[in-house]
Every structure is written in structure tokens, then in C-alpha cells.
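ok trying this again, last paste got cut off
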Amino acid sequence: MEDMENMHNTAITYQGLLTGKVAFITGAGRGIGAAAARLFAREGARVLLAARTEDQLKSVTEDIRAAGGTADYVVCDLADAASVRAAVDRTVEVYGRLDLAFNNGAVAQRPVPLDELAEAEFDHVTAVNLKSVWLAMNAEVAAIRATAGTGAIVNNSSIGSLRANPVLPVYGAMKRAVNSLTQSAAVSYGPEGIRVNAVAPGGTLTEMVRDWDEATPGIIDHMKSVTPLRRTATPEEIAEAAAWLLSDRASYVSGAILQVDGGAGA
């Protein structure tokens, strides 16, 4: 009888996937980044949101706080090196540590072949989609070393990085470079207990994809037709994959480029 009472009184409590962690998220004002910020907070993390548009950041931050989460934000221009470093430093100023980072922010290119892209646009895509990731990772590794000691970083790539990408050639090239940085960093910092992975989303209903569909009508329908699940992803589904990779449940996963594409890359 006593054993039965003990069993009855033993509650199974759910601990959030990221409980006790501090997470930094770029591109957090909308799309996958905003979904990630909300999810990470629900899973117990204290989050610092970074993006260029303050009203979007403020809105997402207020939503998280209203739901009982802990969030703050910093305006950050990913094309500006000092701004990227300052955003990471701000996380440590606000929360005293850094455990996790999701480098999600990116800019699209016009859907044209490489010879039709202006040099200035090439430089901008490179600065935001590649250089800012390198800058952020440098600052994140330093912050993790100085505070939490160990941690995890996830970079947002694309399935367009894993094959020819003739319509978005520079975007694809920068994302492929992000894959390389991810794997190199995983090898460099693994001995310190810092894991580095990437997610490679397939067609996902973000503002970027909707804009692409407006410029090239039928793109979303095409994405669905070449995806075995016959649909696009929601930003929340990509965020779930990033959350798992950042969590201790993925403790032996490092250097992975995780395709989250409904089977499109199979």
C-alpha cells in the first residue's frame, strides 16, 4: 500500500529542452528566427533576439514576455561587423553568460543567374550570409568560453547549398560556405565541449520564400511538387530542429548538416 502511495505521489515533471540556458538568435524579428525565439523561450531558455528592424524585435519580445518567457533584444545590422560583435556581447551583458547561438539571419538574392547579379548585390549577400556568420561565431565562441565554458551553435543553411542552385547561385554558394565553416568549427572547438551544427531547410513558408514566389510565380507550388511530403515547412518546424541540435539531447551530434526538407534531398 505504501509503495502504491509513493507511486501516486511521484509526479513526472517536464523540464524544458533548453531550461537554464541563454540563447542568442539572429534574424529573430520574423520567420524562422522569430519562431525559434518563441520556441526556445517556451523550452526554458532566456533569449536575446537580434535583427535590424526594431519594431519586429519588440513585438516578438513582448509576445515571449506575455507568455511568461524571458527575452530581450538588440538591434543588429548583420552587414556591419561591429554591430554583430556588439549584439553577442549584449547577451552576456543582459544575462551574464552565453550557452547557445542560432545564427539564422540572412538576406535573399534576386532570383537570377550569376551573370545577372550586380557586384554590389554579390557583396551584400556575402556580407550578410557568410561574413556575419563568421563574425558571430568568433564572438559566440569567445563568449561561451568566458562564461558557460561549453555550449552549442547552430547555423541556418539551406538545401540549396547541397546541390546546384542556378536560380539563386550566390545565395547557394554562401550557404555552402556556411556548411564548411560549420564543420570546420565543429572540429576546432569540439575538444572544448562546444558543438557546432547546421540545419538545411527545404521550402519553408517565410517572407523570403513568399517574396520569391511573387517574383517567380509558381515557386511554392514547385517546392511542394518535388517534396515527398507534398507540402512546405512552417518556420516552427525548422525551429524545432534547431532547438534539438542546441539541446543536451543532441549531446553527441556535432559537425552535422541536418536536412529539414520533407525528403526533398533524398
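PB: full thing came through this time. The beta strands are 22-26, 46-51, 70-75, 100-103, 151-156, 194-201, 257-260.
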